[in-house]
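Question (not urgent): is this output format expected?
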Amino acid sequence: MAEFRHEMPNSIREYFQFRDDLSSIGGVIVYKDRIVIPPSLLSSVAFLHSNCRAELGVKTVKRLLMDNTSPSGTIDTVSFQRAMLQYRNTLDRDAKLSPAMCIFGRPIRDFILIIPGNYRPRETWRSTWKAHEEALQNLHMRCAERLSKHIKQLPPLVVGDHVWIQNQVGPYARKWDKTGVDIEVRPVRDKKSDTPEWKILTEVCPSATPSLKADNR
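Got this back:
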């Protein structure tokens, strides 16, 4: 571990006084039993690659609302509340924890009257669920191979490059309709751009961001 503050990386220099409790596991900085997230790894709003869990939660709630909405557009609040209670006790397929377990450390009461810890679904449903997960896994693997087939890593941007800027929110989200000049390039694809409207934009863009060099204006 570094003996002096200036010997530590800039991203974790503020944790110098806790240096004896810091450790690295697979490149991840850990303080005791907590993961330290350097400021340079913070993502921008609407960056889907890092907001996957949040986007998944939004899609789940939207699906619950659609399933409990009548053709006239009226929400059945009783059915929706029952669905939310059931969702809070549903285990995540990767973490093997439910939202209630993550927050309270235990399952919460729902509309299924069982003794906590004694829920044992029928073996037929267990085998069906397992087969469904295996089928989805193969589908996701084929989708990942298809999406990764024609991508490439673009050269890094440098200060002075003329770039296109993609909208992240608003009525024209994901549209490249603004241009600017890079005035600062940071690690983890974080950059600052100066636009003609005299706005300094700080954003984290994917590696596939199209750029326009100064000699091609």
